[in-house]
Design a protein that fits this description.
Number of helices of chain C: 13
Shape of chain A: globular
Structural class of chain C: alpha+beta
Radius of gyration of chain A: 24 Å
Helix content of chain A: over 70%
Oligomer: heterotrimer
Chains: A mainly alpha (328), B alpha/beta (350), C alpha+beta (376)
Strand order of the largest sheet of chain C: 1-2-3-4
Number of strands of chain C: 4
């Protein structure tokens, strides 16, 4: 087991380095650089700076060096000093900008993953054990609708419903009066009032797909002889279903936790922009638009690291959960 | 379950299980399949009843009707099934619901069942010990520690090597024969009065098969339980059974003691099956006789005697129009219009 | 015991028909039992027709600004005028402005019905450059302000239904072109990977894992942000579809590779090899025919992913940009709460996305089930 984890960890390192390089290249792809975007922005505001100033700015920021050199500077700083570089747009170190947003993103993603599972597993099991029942059809329709609805559309619709029919002020995580207030009961309730929409959006979006997977897995497992063996022992239906086939049908779930994470981050990006949440999404979008390369690059890198870690965790969980893999 | 009152309330004291005219039908889109079409048999305490038939003859479905574990698409079974295990209580199994408390009590506690595929019949994600413990905790009310000891004891009883270690093994770590031993340990874990073995050795190689049969015989005499042994192999039946029932297309065509089946079969189907068994040293260099034709499509069972299109003794006008009655000759039963003639033929031989 | 005694199996005509049917006939037969998939197929065919002949189907030009008909709600279609049946018609809308809130509202003028006519003359357009015409599928006759807006109008008074129809052209084709790109990439790399195996397979597998491990939307966003604003919309369109394909191909490649690996070990492939068939013949005559149906199903299921991707990117302002009309671009108008609460009909393109994605999913599921020779 330890050897297995070590091997997986060692494999992850070159992968992460490669991803970091790709992220950096992607950020550098657009013609022009941060200074170009900056000057364009100034011009829109009616300000001008001279070509000499522009060149000096480039020189100061090291933008004239070859891309490989810039990459090397960036990645070595991350590895050796934990320094993710400097956000040109915000005029602040990247680290100071991203961590609290990442924390919120991670918390939101984890919470919605848990909601996803809490919905998908019981519903999937029910649908499979009561195949072709009325509720099974209802859940099937729900699953397909959820699969077909883009997250941001769901967010828009929920936001609209909350606003028009429930007179709720939605968007963001806090109302304006609590934005910078210290923690209190009022603030907590305010947070919960705002939190449910992103959680519903992210949770149902994921659950819709997983219900179908769980149902299909359960139908496969329910047809296997060991289920009949369990019944022949005199166990009740509930004991049989939850004790045996569910355990086996969960395996694919566990093995895709790693994929669920990047999917959640992806879903989160757009939902967060629509709902104006202080997560990584809106910041990343702006960083990309402004070619704020260290900020954007760091984001993509860190999200990828989460993904790789997520895959690793799911591999380990799966090995722990499924004896057939553990001893293979 | 319409005629549950018809079942025999006063069974003879030696009876353990009695099936009376059991029907199991499958209403499918293509038509009605009468998988079990009026099966009656009985099992006495401590005896081994062999049930022989081709695939699709309904022998496994009958066993599942006893256990009330029919597939969900089956229509509610008809006929009476009466069961009186060691504790002296009488259960009308045919009147019990699939998920009823009484039925769950019978399953596992009074009737154990072994399945054909030892590879897939055990949960792949639980140790065999955990699976046995679950059953003994459920029915015998043991605590975890006692249940674990019981599991080890059972594994030793089915002659598993190193039961102390293998109790923590997962099914995929065991060979086919070992898995079937674990399966047997699970089935007998609560000292059942009846063990239903559904082709328990079909998936095993011949050596392992012999070992498992030997084990079952030992357990049977030691624990005094009855066994319904379902197989398509007459050789296995000869080895283990006291009495034999032969099934064809959802009906029992012949029931007799094992000797009568082998030496005085009174149904052409039994005779044909016996002729198609290869024997050492006999008929060398000659083609092994086979039964002509194929088992008919379950949607269009031939009228009259279901076996008539393949029967070499079939008489047009009788066999293809009239359903043959059960003809009783002492302890022997044959469902053939001409069973009497076979009796006469035997008499002539002697 | 000879063959003569073998009971003649009654084979009825229906069965014989079934036994002699060609594979695609069997697939079609199984597919047509899948009611939802058949409905989806019809829906998509109609949608495709609308998209191709958008100028004809849409009653108005997508860019035509109507200053006096901004944010108009969908026009109600009526059948009875003053208790009398007159066929489908609409009422003209009277525009009023609340003097205090300056909010515009519309009231139907029920004095006179405006019947809906087929093939009415309206704005000029060129029919695929072949000829000029002004005939549209439907519309109302009357003055400039007598309009039928099935899905209302936006803040510039443009007809949302007409824009939706024109958007279908871009969004659907983006999905199809994206899948075509992904198909070429996926089929090539997947079949190389599956057929040759060994280190080539390993390398391609690692590459696929790598691409999968980068969160999709941020990666899309990063790539899409690289496209300069000033480029020609057509080039941006091609590049966006290419970006979508760049990530989408891994799924197809996995399907193709899996099929190749499974088929390579099939007995009939071994049999063909043993009887001396060439590699080319084995691939084209034995392996590809049994794969095509799976690949078609996989392609069908990949289209909605592409459509969703395009919609998301355009919605964020990273993909297609106005004046190009796509569903994602149209949804940009519905980005803030104020416009949605004032004009919920601006979400209509979202409904179109959902229906189209569902239809492709059902169609794909139906095809996959129908293509499985071991299925029910």
């Amino acid at each position: 087991m330890v050897a297995f984890i070590l091997r997986r960890l060692l494999l992850a390192i070159p992968m992460l380095l490669f991803i970091s390089f790709i992220s950096f290249v992607i950020i550098q792809l657009p013609p022009g650089d941060y200074v170009t975007a900056y000057v364009a922005q100034l011009r829109q505001g009616g300000e001008y700076i001279s070509a000499v100033q522009e060149a000096a700015m480039r020189e100061r920021l090291g933008l004239n060096d070859p891309m490989l050199v810039q990459y090397w500077r960036w990645i070595t700083a991350i590895i050796f000093r934990g320094d993710f570089g400097y956000s040109l747009d915000w005029n602040a170190p990247v680290s100071s900008l991203i961590w609290d947003r990442l924390a919120i993103t991670l918390a939101l993603s984890t919470a919605s993953l848990i909601i996803t599972w809490l919905i998908a597993i019981p519903v999937g099991v029910y649908s499979a054990t009561r195949q072709y029942s009325v509720l099974d059809y209802v859940f099937t329709v729900f699953g397909f609708l959820g699969k077909g609805t883009p997250d941001f559309l769901l967010a828009l619709i929920l936001m609209w419903i909350a606003f028009v029919y429930m007179q709720l002020d939605v968007g963001g995580l806090f109302s304006s009066q609590y934005q910078n207030a210290p923690w209190s009961w009022g603030k907590l309730i305010d947070l919960l009032q705002h939190l449910w929409i992103p959680l519903v959006v992210l949770g149902t979006g994921g659950a819709a797909g997983l219900i179908r997977v769980m149902r299909a897995n359960m139908l496969d497992e329910l047809g296997k002889p060991y289920v009949e063996t369990a019944y022949a022992q005199g166990l009740s239906e509930r004991q049989v279903v939850w004790g045996y086939p569910v355990r086996v049908a969960l395996n694919p779930f566990i093995s895709t936790v790693g994929w669920a994470l990047p999917a959640l981050f992806s879903g989160d990006v757009i939902t967060a922009i629509v709902l104006n949440l202080p997560t990584t999404g809106p910041l990343l979008l702006q960083a990309l638009k402004m070619q704020d390369m260290y900020l954007a690059g760091s984001f993509i890198l860190i999200l990828s690291v989460f993904t790789v870690i997520g895959t690793l965790i799911s591999d380990i969980l799966l090995a722990w959960f499924d004896p057939r893999i553990r001893y293979a | 379950m319409g005629n549950k009152t018809m079942t025999n309330q006063n069974m003879p004291p030696e009876r353990l299980l009695e099936l009376d005219d059991v029907h199991v039908h499958f209403p499918l889109r293509e038509g009605l399949v009468k998988a079990v079409n009026g099966v009656s048999y009985h099992v006495n305490k401590g005896e081994v009843l062999g049930i022989v038939g081709e695939s699709g003859s309904g022998k496994s479905i009958t066993a599942r009707a006893i256990m009330r574990l029919l597939p969900k698409r089956a229509a509610a079974p008809e006929g009476g099934i009466t069961f009186r295990p060691r504790n002296g209580e009488t259960y009308e199994l045919s009147a019990l619901g699939r998920n009823s408390r009484a039925m769950r009590q019978v399953r596992g506690q009074h009737i154990g069942m072994i399945f054909q595929e030892p590879m897939t019949a055990l949960s792949p994600v639980h140790t065999i010990g955990a699976q046995i413990m679950r059953t003994v905790q459920l029915h015998m009310g043991l605590n975890r520690k006692a249940a674990r000891e019981r599991a080890i004891e059972l594994l030793a009883k089915v002659q598993m090597p190193r039961p102390n270690q293998l109790v923590d093994a997962f099914p995929h770590q065991l060979s086919g024969g070992m898995r079937q031993r674990a399966m047997i340990a699970l089935a007998i874990s609560c000292n059942p009065s009846l063990l239903i073995a559904d082709e328990p050795t079909t998936a095993l190689d011949v050596t392992t098969e012999a070992q498992i049969l030997e084990l079952l015989k030992e357990l049977q005499s030691e624990m005094g339980m009855a066994i319904i042994f379902i197989t398509h192999n007459f050789g296995v039946v000869a080895d283990i059974a006291d009495r034999v029932s032969v099934m064809y297309l959802g009906k029992i065509v012949e029931t007799a003691t094992v000797d009568d089946i082998f030496y005085a079969a009174k149904h052409p189907y039994t005779q044909a099956l016996l002729r198609s068994i290869p024997r050492l040293g006999v008929d060398q260099g000659r083609r092994l006789p086979t039964i002509p034709g194929m088992v008919p499509d379950p949607f269009s069972v031939p009228p009259g005697c279901a076996f008539n299109p393949r029967c070499t003794h079939a008489v047009a006008g009788i066999c293809d129009t009239q359903v043959p009655p059960e003809k009783i000759f002492g302890s022997q039963m044959s469902r053939c219009h001409f069973a009497d003639q076979f009796v006469a033929a035997e008499a002539a031989h002697v | 015991m000879t063959e003569q005694t073998l009971a003649a199996e009654p084979i009825n005509a229906k069965k014989e028909d079934l036994y002699s049917a060609k594979p695609w006939q069997l697939i079609w037969r199984r597919f047509s039992k899948h009611i939802l998939a058949v409905i989806s197929l019809w829906f998509l065919l109609i949608l495709a027709f609308c998209a191709i002949f958008a100028e004809f189907v849409a009653p108005y030009e997508p860019f035509k600004v109507e200053r006096l008909r901004t944010m108009a709600p969908p026009t109600g279609i009526h059948l009875f005028h003053e208790g009398q049946f007159v066929g489908p018609f609409v009422y003209a809308m009277e525009r009023t402005r609340d003097p205090e809130t300056t909010r515009v509202s519309y009231e139907p003028d029920t004095s006179e019905p405006l019947p809906i006519r087929l093939f009415v003359a309206s704005s000029d357009y060129s029919f695929f450059g072949l000829f000029k015409t002004d005939i549209h599928l439907f519309g109302v006759e009357g003055g400039r302000r007598d309009q039928i807006n099935l899905m209302g109008t936006d803040d510039l008074g443009r007809d949302v239904f007409s824009r939706l129809i024109h958007g279908a052209r871009v969004s659907l084709s983006a999905g199809l072109v994206g899948v075509a790109f992904a198909f070429v990439l996926g089929l090539t790399l997947g079949s190389i990977s599956g057929y040759f195996g060994g280190w080539i397979d390993g390398a391609i597998q690692r590459l696929m894992e790598l691409i999968r491990s980068i969160p999709t939307i941020p990666l899309w966003m990063g790539l899409a942000a690289a496209l300069p604003v000033v480029w020609d919309p057509l080039i941006v369109y091609v590049l966006i579809t290419f970006i979508l394909a760049l990530i989408g191909w891994t799924y197809l490649a996995r399907v193709v590779r899996g099929q190749f690996l499974a088929l390579r070990n099939e007995d009939y492939v071994l049999a063909a090899r043993l009887s001396g068939a060439s590699e080319y013949r084995i691939i084209t005559k034995h392996m590809l025919p049994s794969m095509t149906s799976y690949i078609i199903a996989a392609l069908t299921l990949a289209v909605p992913e592409m459509i969703l991707g395009e919609t998301a990117l355009s919605f964020l302002g990273l993909g297609l940009r106005p004046p190009v009309v796509s569903w994602g671009v149209l949804l940009q108008d519905a980005q803030n709460l104020r416009s949605i609460s004032l004009a919920p009909w601006l979400l209509a393109p979202g409904g179109a996305v959902v229906l189209t994605v569902l239809a492709f999913n059902f169609l794909g599921d139906g095809l996959r089930d129908a293509a499985d020779p071991y299925g029910q």
